[in-house]
């Protein structure tokens, strides 16, 4: 499994690989302590609730594809704009299609690795 990102532009790829592995603990490592996950517009979660919401997406059993569009870094903070898609046949045999453009914030930790501070997958949704 890929190590945590050493550059902000690599955070989405690390996340996708870990998401697609189906290992919730591996995904959780891509987030800093106290990180926020926004599984739907206006629904910001932290802690165990954020982790559970991410696990629910993973539970669809369909891989995610990510395409970073913009990465703007200033010191130890970065804004990531990422197009993403979950598309395929779910564990229940039904077709699943979810997509969005994320507006995420990553932060470089004391160990030099970048992690999500805010993961907002539907960041440009109205």
Tell me what you see in this structure:
By secondary structure, the chain is α+β, with helices and mostly antiparallel strands. It contains three helices and six strands, in the order ααββαββββ. The protein is globular and about 45 Å long. The chain has helices spanning 11-21, 24-28, 47-58, and strands at residues 31-40, 43-46, 64-74, 77-89, 95-108, 114-119. Residues 17-115 form the DUF4440 domain. This is DUF4440 domain-containing protein.
Into which percent range does the helicity of residues fall?
A: 10-25%
Low-confidence stretches: none
Largest sheet: 6 strands, mixed
Number of strands: 6
In angstroms, what is the radius of gyration? 14 Å
Helix/strand/pairing class, anyone?
alpha+beta
What spatial form do the alpha-carbon principal axes imply? globular
- Our estimate of the beta-strand percent is over 45%
Strand order of the largest sheet: 2-1-6-5-4-3
Could you tell me the mean pLDDT? 96
Number of helices: 3
Distance between the termini: 35 Å
Oligomer: single chain
Order of helices and strands: HHEEHEEEE
Q: Which terms would index this structure?
A:
single chain, alpha+beta, six-stranded mixed beta sheet, 3 helices, 6 strands, NTF2-like_dom_sf, DUF4440
Describe the structure in brief.
The protein has helices at residues 11-21, 24-28, 47-58, and strands spanning 31-40, 43-46, 64-74, 77-89, 95-108, 114-119. The protein is an alpha+beta fold. It has a 6-stranded mixed β-sheet with strand order 2-1-6-5-4-3, with helices on one face.
